[in-house]
Design a protein that fits this description.
The complex is a heterodimer of chains A (about 220) and B (about 375). Chain A has a domain at about 50-200: NADH:ubiquinone oxidoreductase Nqo5 subunit (Beta Polymerase, domain 2, 2-Layer Sandwich). Chain A has helices at about 55-65, 90-100, 160-170, 205-215; strands spanning about 70-75, 80-85, 110-115, 125-130, 135-145, 150, 175. Chain A is about 20% helix and about 20% strand. In chain A, strands 1-2-5-4-3 form a 5-stranded mixed sheet, covered by helices on one side. Chain A has a two-stranded parallel sheet with strand order 6-7. With about 220 residues, chain A is α/β, with parallel strands linked by helices. In chain A, α1 (about 55-65) packs across α2. Chain B has about 375 residues and is an alpha+beta fold. Chain B has one domain (about 50-375): Orthogonal Bundle (Cytochrome-c3 Hydrogenase, chain B). Helices cover about 50% and strands about 15% of the residues of chain B. Chain B contains 15 helices and 8 strands. In chain B, the strands form 3 sheets. A 3-stranded antiparallel sheet of chain B has the order 1-2-3. A 3-stranded antiparallel sheet of chain B has the order 6-7-8. Chain B has a two-stranded antiparallel sheet with strand order 4-5. In chain B, β2 (about 30-35) and β3 (about 40-45) form a beta hairpin. The longest helix of chain B is centred in the N-terminal third of the chain and has 30 residues, at about 100-130. The chains are: A alpha/beta (about 220), B alpha+beta (about 375). The interface between A and B is large, with 67 and 76 residues.
């Protein structure tokens, strides 16, 4: 069957909204090599962090685990639903045990564990916790350096972390100390020397091609 | 004279390899089972055969291209994966999706749940030894649903129909009528499968009290979706953390009593009935016309710096997308929390102590998609 006429949402409205739209696309025949587009990347500016209201989950947790949090703030994009805390890596087992066992928190569900490579600022591990009974969530973050990428394992506290930690070790080379079986999970057994998701491990040209191709004007003249 | 037994005749633990190419592993999955006689003593799962570095590739794709990759990751519940990704980007960009687009998204996502669960029912019947009969009951139904998806998106499997902010294009004019037609088929197909399997004595004998998992263990292992609900935890993201417009529909969340393989089957069958009900309600409320993308849709998708965790209730459980952006048109980091991955991590504990043949049933009841395990 024939498709209805395509209506590309990206190409429909306000042409002058982004700075790139004002730059005319270079004529393909005139320029054999693609001229570099003027660099007009939007300067990233961090949104101001909003501290959680007093008596929030972070205060309860700090008291229950008897530690000091490096930082605590509301995740802005989560519309006040989620509190994020940053802790020192050595405090991770205490934080997780308190989060799971304290009856006021009851964060019994580890929904996600991810690594993030912040380059100059080191490697980060992000834990997403959720309480099935209390219906609140908490993000726990901790930073380590490339030279010393060790984080205590929480596989004994949350069995769900077992495979997540193995995957994060595969991809970022973060060593989860005390993990019962920290062998490669998704990668081949002998691939323990380089870590694909780190930023110093760039994609091959062929893999980048699609993204760059689109950046140079494809998709703007779809209709 | 003392009679000695030959120690060579003792039953000893023996490792058996199963997979990666094995019809019962539902994809490229390998497990090494250590058996004592017919009893499983240990099980070591090996995954990663389908690992394509999707999370890395998506860092090089802009936000529109990434949608196509979601289909290729979760190829039985494509719309759920697309929806989670779109929700994450929309949340970062603070976009409001138009009503009509929201309804069409819900209709398609729930139809996708039907087709995915039909696939489960067909394959699970085969695992249980129904031979191909359950497949011949379930697959025509999946085909009817896929025809509608094809009419809407232009592709049988890789739809890439959802867009950040709404939908790619308007649905065909006869969409509502076609969905009604297909729902009649689906209801009949559901009844056929119910008649064939649910009260079948052999099927029940193979399913009941197999792979039982308590609610506490299920939560600890991060199980989600029908796996968690079969263990008696009434946790459904559509109810507990409503996204999109799920708070507008009436539906029940079925839970099991025993957490065994049979409960997981029953939960999925009941979920299909609820899905049909949700689709019917959505068709009734669907605005006849209106925009399908926001009016102030930026020409180029750029997000401000930030992070967001978006999640949807996919047929297999919680499909989460953790998106970190440093500004610009590409994700800085994208983690796909796939339900199959988390569910599969509990396989070892669930299987030990059962018979070898039951391992196939337990794996089948998880309804894993290996592409989504390996990403």
């Amino acid at each position: 069957m024939t498709l209805p006429e395509g209506q590309d949402p990206e190409a429909t409205s306000d042409a002058g909204a982004t700075p790139e739209a004002a730059v005319p696309a270079p004529a393909a025949a005139a320029a054999p090599a693609k001229p570099a587009r003027p660099a007009k990347e939007v300067e990233p500016k961090d949104a101001p962090r909003v501290a959680p209201p007093a008596g929030s989950i972070n205060d309860v947790l700090a008291k229950a685990a008897a530690i000091t949090l490096t930082a605590a703030y509301m995740v802005p994009e989560m519309k006040g639903e989620c509190v994020a805390i940053e802790v020192a890596r050595d405090d991770i087992p205490a934080v997780m045990t308190a989060a799971r066992d304290d009856s006021r928190l009851d964060l019994n569900y580890l929904r996600c564990l991810s690594g993030v490579d912040w380059q100059d600022e080191g490697l980060e591990v992000v834990y997403h916790l959720w309480s099935i009974s209390k219906k609140h969530s908490l993000q726990v973050k901790t930073r380590v350096t490339y030279e010393d990428p060790n984080v205590p394992s929480i596989a004994a506290i949350y069995p769900a972390a077992d495979w997540h930690e193995r995957e994060t070790r595969d991809m970022f080379g973060i060593n989860f100390e005390g993990h019962p079986n920290l062998v490669p999970l998704l990668l081949p057994e002998d691939m323990t020397d380089h870590f694909p998701l780190r930023k110093d491990n760039p994609l091959q040209e062929i893999e980048e091609w699609q993204g760059d191709n689109l950046r140079d004007g494809a998709g703007e003249g779809d209709e | 004279m003392v009679l000695e037994r030959d120690p060579a005749l003792d039953v000893v633990d023996m490792p058996i390899n199963m997979g990666p190419q094995h019809p019962s592993t539902h994809g490229v999955f390998r497990m090494v089972l250590v058996v004592n006689g017919e009893k499983i003593v240990d099980l070591v799962p090996h995954i990663g055969y389908m690992h394509r570095g999707g999370e890395k590739l998506m860092e090089a794709m802009d936000f529109r291209q990434g949608i196509g990759y979601c289909d290729r990751t979760e190829y039985l519940a494509q719309f759920s994966a697309e929806l989670a990704y779109c929700l994450a980007v929309e949340r970062l960009m603070d976009l409001q999706v138009p009503e009509r687009a929201e309804y069409i998204r819900v209709i398609l996502t729930e139809m996708n749940r039907l087709s995915s669960h039909f696939m489960f029912a067909g394959a699970f019947g085969v695992d249980a030894g129904v031979f191909a009969t359950s497949f011949t009951y379930a697959f025509p139904q999946r085909e009817f649903l896929q025809e509608v998806f094809e009419e809407v998106s232009g592709d049988r499997l890789m739809y890439a129909y959802f867009r950040v902010g709404g939908l790619a294009w308007e649905v065909p004019d006869n969409f509502v009528q076609r969905v009604h037609e297909v729902l009649v088929h689906s209801a009949q197909g559901l009844k056929d499968i119910d008649d064939l399997l649910t009260k079948n004595e052999i099927f029940m004998a193979r399913c009941q009290n197999i792979g039982s998992f308590s609610a506490q263990r299920a939560i600890a292992y991060g199980l989600s979706g029908p796996m968690l609900r079969a263990s008696g935890v009434p946790w459904d993201l559509r109810k507990d953390e409503p996204y999109s417009i799920y708070d507008r529909f009436n539906f029940e969340v079925p839970v099991g009593n025993y957490g065994d393989v049979y409960d997981r089957y029953l939960v999925r069958i009941e979920e299909m009935r609820q899905s049909i009900s949700i689709i019917e309600q959505a068709l009734e409320q669907l605005p006849p016309d209106g925009p399908i993308v926001p009016e102030k849709m930026p020409r180029r998708l750029r997000t401000p710096p930030g992070e967001v965790y978006a999640k949807v209730e996919a047929p297999r459980g919680e499909w989460g997308v953790y998106l970190v952006s440093k500004g610009g048109d590409k994700p800085y980091r994208l983690k796909m929390r796939s339900p199959s991955f988390c569910n599969l991590s509990a396989l070892r504990e669930m299987t030990i102590g059962h018979y070898l043949a039951d391992a196939v049933m337990i794996l089948g009841s998880m309804d894993i998609v290996l592409c989504d395990v390996d990403r």
